[in-house]
Amino acid sequence: MMLPGRQDSHGSAAVSGNLPMDGKAVLLVHPAWHSCGSHQVFVSQARAYRSLGARVISLAIADSPGAVEGSGAHKTYAAATRDLEADARLYSGMPVLSVLNPAFLGAAKLWLHGNFAKILLESAKLAPIPAALRAEPRIDLIHCNHFFCMPVAMRLKQRHGCAILLDTHDLQARQYALRNEAGWTLPPPANFEDMLAVELAAMRDADVLLHLNDEEAASFKVLLPAMRHELLYPAVPAVAAGQGGADLIIVASANYANFLGVLWFLEKVLPLAPGVGVKIVGNIDGAFRTRAPALLKRHAALFKGRVADLDAVYANAAAILLPTTEGHGISIKTIEAMSSGAPLIATPHAFRGMNLDPAQLKNVTLAADARSFAAALLRADAERGGAQIDQGASDTRRTYQERFSFEAYRSALVKIAAPLVRG
């Protein structure tokens, strides 16, 4: 399916022959995820390559048996990701009968012990290449996301002889180990070292590794010293910067690290700031419904669920709260909050992997423990509704534009990708 109106980063129509990747075909391979930070990275990738003149094909790989092209999972994914604009959007996943594959059965046994690395890799191996992609006469560059999508990327590299850029999206074995700390597994739980070995083996087939944050880049340079590494901060869509409003907000999706942060806020911070009204926006309520239903019931009035207009939520914020206590890799929701220009109350961990000192940002209040976070919350509560400011001129908005805007991402990406495109 062709999409009309390819545009450059300033929104004007691209002129054929004047762009560095004009006439080239770029394949984006990525998990079929939505409503998360990784999806926003995929959106920016597609937009950047198209603005550089390339024809972009998006191939979403599902990570559960039976989530094949035309399935309910496919339809749900497509409906939730209309913001991913590509010249062709394709989808694949392993057929349900592929669970009988001996390699998958072996991975499933490891999965029962919490080895997510192995089962995700085997699931991708069993996802067929869509017919429309098999018919493509030429792919000039493959931009793969997450190590477990590499089996799909490698099949297409062998067919087209092009380079693979692999976006690592953090060291995934860390995330799996964190998940296993609280999740159910058969004993003994999969250990970090075993999952890391699976991850690194899949990554070695890439031509260049792209890393989203400083911490991630430093780790992989030690683990894979013979490979080429590039630091490429993600482009996160900006929310509108306005004059601010009266709400104290937390915006969070339902991942485990976010759950732990909001849990800490509700159990440790909020009791020290009685009577302060806070709005918790996003599908994080689903994580509490599963993991802490009693706490959700006690604070039901605070949870607002997913909202249609997130810009309006940010625009009416007196302050944005970032009670981040766990997690690895760069925080997409922190970058999104920075783009709003609103005052932030945050733990230092919210700014991990960014190579900046948030204490130097005038509209950021750092709070390393519950008592200082509550004190900052009480001050923000007392001051809300006061003098409005131009949030577009704030320190966090300026830092966002310099590091995490689409223009910054596009400029860095073309320097890495264009020389790799097949001539």
Automatic annotation (TrEMBL):
SUPFAM superfamilies linked to this entry: UDP-Glycosyltransferase/glycogen phosphorylase (SSF53756)
One example of a Gene Ontology biological process annotation: lipopolysaccharide biosynthetic process
Keywords associated with the record: Transferase
A GO term, aspect molecular function: glycosyltransferase activity
Name of this chain's protein: Glycosyl transferase family 1
Organism this protein belongs to: Methylocella tundrae
